């Protein structure tokens, strides 16, 4: 996390997922549809890493599936338990996940990598626990920042959120994932990128 960021406030999930802005709601809806399709109706053991308040996970979890949510902020994990029925909630760090090797069929990591000072330890750990596929979403730069500027958000920072430490293009996302996964597919879901990675 960026120095000085309030860890309890960082990643304003509720503000984002409950916004009244119709364009933002539509864009988020499009992203979550893509994530849900990548998860599929039968994901097996499903874990969401960096689950925050669980608002995105609640919208992409298939009916009848009981997911696991991993989050290092206890207060946000408590909110996720309320948002996702039956959630297996675990306090944990993305750099040291509490799962054996190749033990999770479908791993989801939504808008987490951009918050990390360095992404490689996290990606390595996600690859370690993934048995089937790992689904990533990150802001697609510079389009995400341009969208913020168009809304008058973070103007003094050229549209960049204070807690975003990494900037991803399709090439940069692929280069971060490919050393640790056997296959990586990156697609644009403006203003985000989504990658589906499978282990070697």
Would you give an account of this structure?
The protein has a single domain, classed as Rossmann fold, CATH 3.40.50.150. With 200 residues, the protein is α/β, with parallel strands linked by helices. The two termini are 30 Å apart. It has seven helices and seven strands; from the N terminus they run ααβαβαββαβααββ. Strands 3-2-1-4-5-7-6 form a seven-stranded mixed β-sheet, sandwiched between helices. It has helices at residues 13-17, 22-39, 55-60, 74-83, 120-129, 143-150, 170-177, and strands at residues 46-49, 68-71, 88-91, 104-110, 130-139, 183-189, 192-198. Helix content is 32%, strand content 22%.
- Write the CATH architecture name: 3-Layer(aba) Sandwich
At the first level of CATH, what is the class? Answer: Alpha Beta
Q: If you consult CATH, what is the topology?
A: Rossmann fold
- The total strand number stands at 7
Taken together, the total number of domains comes to: 1
Features:
200 residues; alpha/beta; Rossmann fold; seven-stranded mixed β-sheet; 7 strands; disordered N terminus
Please write out the topology.
Elements: H1 13-17, H2 22-39, E1 46-49, H3 55-60, E2 68-71, H4 74-83, E3 88-91, E4 104-110, H5 120-129, E5 130-139, H6 143-150, H7 170-177, E6 183-189, E7 192-198
Parallel strand pairs: 1-2, 1-4, 2-3, 4-5
Antiparallel strand pairs: 5-7, 6-7
């Amino acid at each position: 996390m960026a120095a000085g960021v309030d860890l309890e406030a960082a990643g304003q999930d509720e503000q984002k997922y409950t916004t009244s802005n119709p364009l933002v709601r539509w864009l988020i809806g499009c992203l979550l549809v893509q994530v849900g399709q990548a998860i599929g109706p039968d994901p097996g053991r499903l874990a969401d890493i960096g689950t925050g308040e669980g608002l995105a996970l609640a919208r992409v979890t298939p009916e009848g599936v009981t997911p696991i949510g991993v989050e290092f902020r206890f207060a946000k994990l408590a909110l996720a338990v309320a948002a996702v029925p039956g959630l297996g909630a675990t306090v944990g760090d993305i750099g040291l996940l509490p799962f054996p090797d190749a033990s999770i069929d479908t791993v989801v990591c939504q808008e987490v990598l951009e918050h990390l000072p360095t992404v490689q330890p996290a990606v390595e750990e996600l690859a370690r626990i993934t048995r089937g596929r790992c689904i990533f979403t990150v802001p697609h730069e510079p389009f995400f920042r341009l969208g913020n500027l168009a809304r008058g958000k973070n103007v003094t920072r050229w549209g960049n959120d204070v807690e975003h430490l990494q900037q991803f293009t399709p090439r940069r996302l692929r280069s971060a994932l490919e050393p640790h996964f056997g296959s990586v597919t990156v697609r644009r879901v403006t203003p985000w990128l989504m990658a589906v990675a499978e282990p070697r």
